[in-house]
Design goal:
The complex is a heterodimer of chains A (242) and B (285).
Chain A lengths: L8 E12 L2 E12 L3 E5 L6 H8 L3 H4 L4 E11 L2 E4 L7 H7 E4 L10 H11 L5 H14 L3 H4 L12 H13 L5 E5 L7 H14 L4 E5 L3 H7 L2 E6 L2 E4 L4
Parallel strand pairs in A: 3-8, 3-9, 6-7, 7-8
Antiparallel strand pairs in A: 1-2, 1-4, 4-5, 9-10
Helix pairs in contact in A: 4-5, 4-7, 5-7, 7-8
Chain B lengths: L2 H36 L4 H6 L2 E2 L4 E2 L2 H32 L2 H14 L4 H20 L7 H25 L3 H9 L4 H12 L1 H17 L2 H6 L17 H11 L4 H29 L6
Antiparallel strand pairs in B: 1-2
Classes of the chains: A alpha/beta (242), B mainly alpha (285).
């Protein structure tokens, strides 16, 4: 796909405003993130890029439920229909299983590699061991991690290297087959080799999900992003217009 | 070294030495006073026998058993309530509600034990008597329930502290994976707070073992071995208080030092248990 081409929209934001305790973070963001594309969001620090991601899976409600305030509409094509994710009838658990997120610093849970990847399945109520094993293996393969960890699945995940931990987190995010994957500077704490592996992995996932990635590395953006948008003063603009 | 540095250094050192020396001195003092009974050849008879002064038997086993049953019952009754309350204060309740509840729990730590005892006598004893029929209502169960209330603030505050120490990124990761608040608590917070929870239970147990007034006012103080929770029983602390108030320089009186030593050793073991627990590595993957 060529840069800035516009296929079917997956995520639509209309005049989204967001403030924390009265301080505006997003000032009327209107944007579309197309299906099966990697949309990169770039811009200086403190402009609201992470907040933007957190409005797409409502994670800000977990962080600052009492002081955050959102206005505008955020709609995502999920399960074949266009869904206003802030409507009360949509369950947060369901939304976060469809819209997964990978954070800036790898955040494996304090449990084994296997249990980390299987954790979302456990939350979703999967009890069949053989089914869980199959899907854990598939997710680890998807994240290019299986060969490196297949002999130590029951070791503490925190013993892995930074790059491996981040791929583990991606595997964990992918195991429930999300439709949208939010990536908040996923390679910022990793070395060059680990970055390359993760970039290849993300490029490989485009066919199965839509990605919105916050990044500070313009070279990386050029290598893997299909579209680039710039966040400036709480507004999101196509790169050409910024 | 300046004068103020000298004073600070040696002042702190003196405070540390006194703090360490006082419990040691208490132990030595009790060991010396208990020396006659420790060397009389009646040590095991006293530790493991029944209390029957008419037949010259001054065994403290019923009191040891009463102490243990009461403390364990109290902590068992308090544990689920404290866990739920701590979860509410730290995780489930929004900011102002959580802070208010936390303040109430902290305030509870300052209520004098005798107040709990009075509440027990005038509210709980009649309730137990009416609800379960027969007896005076002064029983192990009555004392255990009130003791549970007494140890709860200690346990809740320790649980809250251990929940608060669970790394935020773990909760955030679980939330982003679709974990509900309850699932975050069950699968992430609880396993991580395991050592803190255990320490809270052990400290609660220590507080329950060492309490005197609740047992004295509500447990009935019978010196027989209790058969069930509706029986009256006497704890080591209540035994010491009762004998010391009525006797001096008798065989009964001399057994008190053994009671004190037993309590001292039990409490020390619990404190060691807490310290070891806090040093345990985190939950195995």
């Amino acid at each position: 796909m060529k840069m800035n081409e516009a296929p079917a929209p997956k995520v639509e934001l209309r005049n989204v405003r967001f403030d924390y305790g009265g301080a505006p973070i997003l000032n009327g963001v209107t944007a579309v993130f197309p299906t099966h594309c990697i949309t990169a969001v770039v811009g200086p620090s403190g402009q609201g890029k992470t907040t933007l991601l957190m409005t797409l899976n409502r994670l800000w409600q977990e962080e600052r439920p009492t002081v955050g305030r959102l206005a505008g509409t955020v709609r995502i094509h999920l399960n074949g229909g266009l869904v206003d994710i802030y409507e009360d009838r949509y369950d947060l658990t369901w939304l976060r299983r469809r819209v997964a997120m990978v954070f800036q610093s790898p955040n494996p849970l304090p449990m084994s590699i296997y249990k980390n990847v299987a954790f979302p399945l456990k939350l979703a109520g999967e009890k069949r061991d053989h089914r869980m094993e199959e899907r854990v293996q598939a997710a680890l393969r998807q994240a290019f991690l299986w060969d490196e960890v297949k002999d130590r699945l029951h070791k503490d995940a925190r013993e892995l290297s930074g790059g491996q931990q981040q791929r583990l987190c991606i595997a964990r995010a992918l195991i429930l087959k999300p439709e949208v994957l939010l990536l908040d500077e996923p390679t910022s704490s990793l070395d060059l080799r680990a970055c390359e592996v993760i970039e290849a992995l993300l490029a490989h996932q485009k066919e199965s999900c839509t990605m919105v990635m916050v990044s500070h590395y313009l070279e990386q953006v050029r290598r893997i992003a299909d579209r680039v948008m710039v966040m400036e003063n709480g507004r999101l603009l196509p790169r050409d217009a910024a | 070294m300046t004068r103020s540095e000298f004073l600070t250094k040696y002042g702190f050192m003196a405070a540390a030495i006194i703090s360490a020396a006082v419990p040691l001195a208490i132990f030595i003092f009790m060991a010396l006073l208990g020396y006659p009974i420790l060397t009389s050849g009646r040590l095991f008879g006293t530790l493991l026998g029944a209390w029957d002064p008419i037949h010259q038997s001054y065994g403290i086993l019923p009191m040891i058993i009463g102490t243990f049953i009461l403390a364990i019952l109290a902590v068992a009754a308090a544990f689920p309530v404290c866990l739920g309350c701590a979860a509410l204060v730290s995780d489930a309740a929004p900011g102002p509600v959580g802070r208010f509840l936390h303040g109430v729990v902290r305030m509870m730590t300052g209520i004098p034990t005798v107040v709990y005892g009075f509440v027990g006598i005038f509210l709980l004893v009649p309730l137990i008597r009416e609800a379960f029929g027969g007896g005076s209502g002064f029983s192990l169960l009555t004392a255990a329930l009130m003791l549970a209330l007494l140890v709860s603030p200690t346990m809740i505050l320790l649980f809250c502290d251990s929940f608060g120490r669970v790394t935020h990124t773990y909760r955030q990761a679980a939330a982003a994976l679709g974990a509900t608040t309850a699932q975050q608590f069950l699968f992430v917070v609880l396993p991580q707070a395991r050592n803190g929870i255990l320490a809270g239970v052990l400290l609660g147990l220590g507080r329950a073992l060492g309490d005197t007034l609740i047992a004295l006012m509500l447990a009935g103080n019978a010196v027989a071995f209790p058969d069930h929770v509706f029986d009256s029983a006497r704890t080591l602390t209540a035994h010491i208080a009762l004998i010391i108030a009525a006797d001096f320089d008798s065989p009964e009186f001399r057994t008190l030092f053994l009671c004190g030593l037993t309590l001292y050793v039990l409490t020390t073991l619990l404190v060691l248990g807490v310290r070891l627990t806090m040093r345990l590595p985190g939950r195995r993957p």
